[in-house]
Each structure stands twice: as C-alpha cells, then as structure tokens.
Write a structure and sequence with these properties.
alpha+beta; six-stranded antiparallel beta sheet; 12 helices; 6 strands; 13% strand
Length: 329
Amino acid sequence: MAERALMLEADGIVKRILHVGTGPLLDFANGTKATFHYQTMRCDAERTLVDDSRDRGKPMELIIGKQFKLPVWETIISSMRQGEVAEFQCDTKHVLGYPLVSKSLRNIAVGKDPLEGQRHCCGISRMHEHHSLGHPDLDELQSCPQPLLFRIEMLKVEEPGSYEQEAWAMSDEEKLAAVPHIHEEGNRLFKAGRVLEATKKYHDAIACLKNLQMKERPGDEHWMALDMMITPLLLNYCQCKMISEEYYEVIEHCTTILNKYEDNVKAYFKRGKAQGAVWNEVEARKDLSKAATLDPSLASLVNRELRQIEERIRLKEQEEKSRYRTLFQ
C-alpha cells in the first residue's frame, strides 16, 4: 500500500486517506469494475466544488482497461479498497481532459447525448480553440488548466467475470453477440407486463447496434445487416412507447423506418394507431389503410382501429360542442 502511494506521489498525485476501506487491495486487472461517488474540487482555499456525483443521484461506474477519457481516474481508484474514502490532488498534466469529461457526465445526468458537441474535432484542438463547453466553470478550467482535487468514496469493486457487463462497456464483438440475448430479455419482460424494463432492454440493444453501425459506411452490406437487426427492435420499442402513451415518439421512429423500408406493414400500423391517438385522423386512415393493403389479413383489425378512431373523434366533438354551449349560456 505504501509503495503504491509513493508511486502516485512520484507521478504528481498526492493521496490522503479519510476512511480506511475493507478487504484486500485488488490488482485491478483489465475488466475490474469500480463503482464510486466522486467530488471534484479546485485546489483553492475554498476548495470550490466543480462536480458531485451525489447531486446526480447515481454513482460513477468505471471499468479498468476500457480507455476512459480521464486515465488518472483509473490510476487513483486502482489504489483503493472497497469502502475506502480518499482525496487525490492531481497535477495539471493529469486533468487537462477533465472539462470535456465533466461535460459528458453532466450531459448523461440530464439524459443528453454524452458526445454532444464533441463529434467533429478532438479534445485537444477544442481546448486550443477555447471553444465553449456550455458551462462557464468548465470553460474557465479549459482556458486556464490547473490542478484538481478528487474526493473518491469507493462503493464497490468487482473482479472481471463477477458482474453482468453493461452494453456501453462491451467491445464491438461483445455488443454484437449480446444483442440477441438483450432482445430476448426485452421480449420476456414485455410479456410479463414489465413495460418500462422492456423499453430499456430494447433501447440498450438498439444503442449497441447503432454504435456498431456508426463505424460502417451508410448503405454498405454490413451497415444494412445491422439496420435489419435494428428495425424489429425499434418496432418493439415503439410498442412500449405506445403503451406509455408517448405517441409522437412512435410516429417519429416509424417514419424513420418507413423512409428506408416503405413496405414495412408494422411501421404503418403502429404509426397509424399513434396518429389516431393524437387526433390526426387523415394520416391515421392513410397509414392504417396502407397496412391493410400490404397485408390483407389485417383488414378486420384495421377496420376495428378505424371505428375506434371515429368513435373517439365523435365523442371529442360532442364534448367540445357541450363546452361551447356552456360558455355562451
């Protein structure tokens, strides 16, 4: 333990243990998963707070060897036991990339794309350009790099193979192999009525495939093969969103599918139902009729949907007339 601390200090990292952890100090081989809370502070007299994972309601998860964008975090957590709380003062050279990492983590916390604004140029060039990150405190750290203090509370350390690997941490080969299993699990959850959990499974599987698809040229054989895997997952996802009454999202995704596969019966049917749910009668009739044309076996189901839409619209018109009469009486 003392030897690791000396190695850290020689590399410009000063560690101070605030609470001793339990269990052995692992070797943190590639694939080890660390779950921890962190606070990032400036090294000023006030120890000005920059980030606090607790404010976001979820701890950080980091897997050793997955090339996290802030290598110093792999270094410092590899010196910790489970349950340990420690502070690490890190020289400027170790934290030049922190503003970009912080922006990504802040994006994730509010449901945004973690790569938003970072797709077209590398981090170093952006730092040289002093491009705004959308957060004044991060802009200041970007333009005036300085040492940072990290307070880490190690919640859990899991050795390789002892935990279920999440999609974001998988290699390309692992993602491709995992998708059928994630898809099957989504179907099982949906049949059990656990719609929100099924939605997440379908979303995770789609994200895996989209990540792989981004590395292919649109329209190429491999791109198309991946897209053919995405389409049924996206339709299942839309079914979940339909149940959750998120109709505009259903319309958007089904339109995306139909822009590429104009004979997809399920996309027409689901979009037609969603159009009817948001009172777009003309569009609903058009989509549902198209579905029945492509698959005549759906005729009775489509007619039932159309009758339901007509009845809903009739009731809505009656309510509006009654409301207007009340206003003018």
